[in-house]
Amino acid sequence: MKGFLHPLADVYVFVKDQPGMIAKMTSVLAKAKINIKDIELMKVREGRGGTFRLAFESKELSARAVVILKRSGFEISE
Asked: What is the pTM of this model?
């Protein structure tokens, strides 16, 4: 939330340690015209992957993002 006038809605996404997974995560959201306002790598497990915190402008957008990411095979921590 630092630096933003309005609170953002966070979603935590586990991303496998495989080439192209970050690109896939951001591409599926871009195709749905969902803008990521902030992104942070929270935790990395060597050889397994990492958890990203994605922040969106509203709860409605974050809910849409969750549906799209789950359909694309990503694990979401809510």
From this structure: 0.85
Q: Which domains does the chain have, with CATH numbers?
A: 9-77 (3.30.70.260)
Q: Is the dihedral of CA 55, 59, 60, 66 positive or negative?
A: positive
Q: Are 29 and 69 in contact (CB under 8 A)?
A: yes
* Digit-coded pLDDT (tens) for 49-72: 899 999 999 999 999 999 999 999
Residues 6+ away with beta carbon under 8 Å from 47: 17
* Backbone φ, ψ for residue 30 (5° rounding): -65, -40
Per this entry, what is the length of the chain?
Answer: 78
* Amino acid identity for residue 33 in this structure: K
How far is residue 59's CA from residue 65's CA, in Å, rounded to a whole number?
Answer: 10
Span 1-11, pLDDT tens digits: 455 567 899 99
